[in-house]
Design a protein that fits this description.
By secondary structure, the chain is mainly alpha-helical. Helix content is 59%, strand content 0%. Residues 15-24 have a biased composition (Polar residues).
Length: 32
């Protein structure tokens, strides 16, 4: 598993907050 910086993690989190996943495929694609 690749290492993610704190900045990247927070970016992913905000991305999910703004764009909720529409299915399990999306969640698997953009998992953090």
């Amino acid at each position: 598993m690749p290492r993610r910086s704190q900045k990247e993690r927070s970016l992913c989190f905000s991305w999910h907050q703004n764009r909720p996943q529409t299915g399990p495929s999306r969640a698997r694609l953009h998992s953090f």
